[in-house]
Write a structure and sequence with these properties.
globular; 20 helices; mainly alpha; 383 residues; 0% strand; single chain
């Protein structure tokens, strides 16, 4: 009888109820909210679903992220090994290859001025950097946090790992991906506040046709130029351009299909769940996380506003030929930000089609954020 009682007692005490504290339950609720937003509301479910589920798992069973060095048998938790791929910059780089394989760089090539709008939107990064310094973060932590301003999850993870800010990687990545998912909610009010209805109705002329040779040469030239100036950007810019070269060369269709579909989705699963699993209650429920989330929102809003403002300047200089709304697409959320520019423009005039014009700044923003990360790495002497 005592054996049965002891066995039942052991079983009961093995349940999660006896091993969790209130913070874990808070994070479980947050995870469920994220799952609701992803599934019921459709807020970037490809990103938010694995992130939220990783958050759910680690707060029910923290040992799923157990470091191998802390394990009695030298074997870490399942998601720890996924997370190592984040730290080594493998998954963020593969994400960039998939993005390159999925994205048409033609609008950027057809309208090189788009680079300026992409660059303007990066002001959000520097706003976050100085804001983080002002809140007491050290220079490397501030740099890692600042990339949230570009709304670029993979680059945020890449830079945090390279700068040794692994303790902040979870909050940084979750903030970056959350704001990427919430682009359709955050951006429109800022865009409408900063533009007049007349400006939102501006119709832009059709982009010039881009030759196949131009599309093939573009990723090669960008890789050579950018990586010669900032070699530390090679993992991100190089993979982005390699994926695009697969797409545009026309001779490796199997590689293009793999990079943009099967491989991309596998990497999203691994990266999303591992990022979510960094949000244990112990690591996430603190003031640093609150500051990071606030800084990320301010930086993202600042980047959007800077892009629109520069769009207004270009509108004036072009004699009203450029719709300022496309400047908001200069953040790195591809193609979400471009779709938001299209949506807001169509609300002002249903016959207005801005999507392809907005894709130029959007692609430029991806490159710009990677360059910003490389610049920080160069400044701090990190390779």
């Amino acid at each position: 009888m005592s054996y049965i009682a002891t066995t039942l007692d052991n079983l009961v005490h093995q349940t999660a109820f006896f091993n969790l504290y209130w913070g874990n339950y808070v994070m479980i609720v947050v995870a469920c909210v994220f799952l609701y937003l992803a599934i019921a509301k459709g807020f970037e479910p490809l990103l938010l679903t694995p992130i939220a589920f990783g958050m759910l798992l680690v707060n029910i069973y923290p040992d799923i992220m157990l470091h191998a060095a802390d394990s009695a048998n030298g074997i870490g938790g399942l998601l720890y090994y996924f997370y190592v791929l984040d730290e080594w910059a493998i998954l963020p780089s593969l994400i960039f290859m998939g993005v390159g394989a999925m994205t048409d760089f033609g609008p950027l090539i057809a309208n090189p001025k788009s680079f300026l709008l992409g660059a303007a939107a990066q002001f959000g990064i520097f706003a976050a950097y100085f804001g983080a310094i002002g809140m007491g973060f050290n220079d490397k932590a501030a740099a890692a946090i600042s990339i949230i301003g570009g709304a670029d999850g993979p680059t945020s993870i890449f830079l945090a790992g390279k700068l040794g800010q692994t303790t902040l990687l979870g909050p940084i990545a979750v903030a970056a991906y959350s704001y990427m998912s919430l682009v359709p909610i955050i951006q429109p009010p800022i865009m409408k506040l900063m533009t007049t209805e007349k400006e939102r109705k501006i119709k832009m002329g059709q982009l010039r046709p881009v030759s196949k040779l131009e599309k093939i040469l573009f990723p090669i030239i960008v890789t050579i130029v950018v990586c010669l100036i900032l070699p530390t950007t090679a993992p991100l810019v190089g993979m982005l351009m390699l994926g695009n070269l697969f797409r545009e060369s026309g001779v490796v269709r199997q590689l293009t299909d793999t990079a943009s579909n099967a491989l991309m989705y596998i990497v999203v699963i691994l990266l999303g769940t591992s990022v979510g699993a960094t949000t244990s209650a112990e690591a996430f429920l603190n003031w640093d996380t609150v500051f990071i989330v606030i800084l990320g929102l301010v930086a993202f809003a600042f980047g959007t506003a800077a892009g629109v403002l520069f769009g207004k300047i270009m509108c004036k200089l072009s004699g009203g030929k450029i719709n300022p709304l496309i400047g908001s697409a200069g953040v790195s959320a591809v193609p979400m930000a471009a779709r938001v520019s299209q949506k807001v423009g169509a609300e002002a005039d249903p016959t207005n089609f801005l999507l392809m014009h907005a894709m130029g700044p959007n692609v430029a923003g991806v490159i710009g954020t990677a360059v910003a990360a490389g610049t920080f790495m160069a400044v701090f002497g990190v390779f």
